[in-house]
Design brief:
5 strands, 41% helix, 298 residues, alpha+beta, five-stranded mixed beta sheet
């Protein structure tokens, strides 16, 4: 390897050591190519020795340096399609495997069949890796975010000591709901929503009004001064993703709950499921649709 002078070589090495870390990939190649070109014969070997960069990279920089048109601002550093592909692209079965892990172990509300996850991203990454899908917990977190999951604050959901078979119970309910949905039979979720006093009472939320002219409401929410009480009872159809809501004005009773389901069937259900001979009803275990009221069960 021909080197003009050791002092010049050390000067080039120091110059490139200060410059290269501050440049992007393409500019590093061009800078090394410029130094190699200035050395003349043996320049590529000299820059290779000074920086450790491969000769192929330096030659590529010389080709880019020889381009007729100067590179415009805002250029791409890499060619289109460059860079690492997403994990779900390189492993097409990854999303199905992740969903299979999450779906049985997810919690939910009356509007979705058990859709909440109790597994951390590290646990999910470990299980996926054990099943042949090498992935890190950070990539699992990115995929979960893209699927609509997010980190959320705690919520009061604990109800004392949990039954040892709680997880098995939810897995059974999840499988049963999936069976009904696959066969085309209706699966509905029912629940009573928050009761509201009827009258000029404060409510959460905002509406558009002229500046400085808010709607005036009563300072105190005394039930005795209300015009009545609205009791919304909802029936949610998981297949159709729509719902029927009946609003009662008396009490949240089992008769009201059953009447609401009957009204949903007469107005919406029987038209959507004309061949149905069975129906799966999911509900919580309290109030009008609790496990104790005889009228609700029979």
């Amino acid at each position: 390897m021909a080197i003009k002078d050791e002092a010049d070589f050390e000067s080039m090495r120091a110059r490139l050591a200060d410059l290269l870390p501050r440049l992007d990939e393409r500019d590093r190649r061009v800078a090394m190519a410029t130094e190699a070109k200035s050395w003349g014969r043996g320049g590529i070997s000299a820059v290779h020795r000074a920086t450790g960069a491969s000769r192929t990279t330096i030659r590529r920089g010389m080709d880019e340096l020889a381009e007729d048109e100067p590179t415009r601002p805002g250029r791409r550093v890499r060619a289109p399609g460059g860079g690492r592909k997403q994990a779900e692209v390189t492993d097409p079965e990854l999303l199905d495997a992740l969903d299979a892990l999450i779906e049985p172990g997810t919690r939910g509300d009356p509007e979705s069949p058990l859709r909440w996850t109790t597994k951390s991203t590290r646990q999910l990454a470990g299980e996926l890796t054990a099943r042949g899908h090498a992935i890190s917990h950070s990539v699992v977190a990115n995929i979960l975010h893209s699927c609509g999951y997010s980190l959320q604050a705690t919520r009061k959901t604990l109800e004392g000591h949990q039954h040892p078979d709680r997880d098995a119970q939810f897995r059974y309910l999840n499988a049963l709901a999936a069976q009904f949905l696959t066969s085309g039979d209706p699966v509905i979720s029912v629940d009573t929503k928050k009761k509201e006093l009827v009258g000029r009472y404060a409510q959460a939320g905002k509406e558009w009004h002229p500046r400085g002219e808010p709607v005036e409401v009563s300072t105190y929410d005394f039930p005795g001064q209300a015009d009545g009480k609205a009791i919304p009872y909802g029936v949610y159809d998981l297949t159709e993703n729509n719902a029927w809501v009946s609003v009662g004005i008396d009490h949240d009773t089992s008769v009201f709950a059953v009447a609401t389901i009957d009204k949903w069937w007469q107005q919406m259900g029987k038209n959507r499921y004309p061949q149905a001979r069975r129906i799966l009803i999911t509900a919580d275990g309290g109030g009008s649709n609790g496990h104790r009221p005889w009228l609700w069960k029979f």
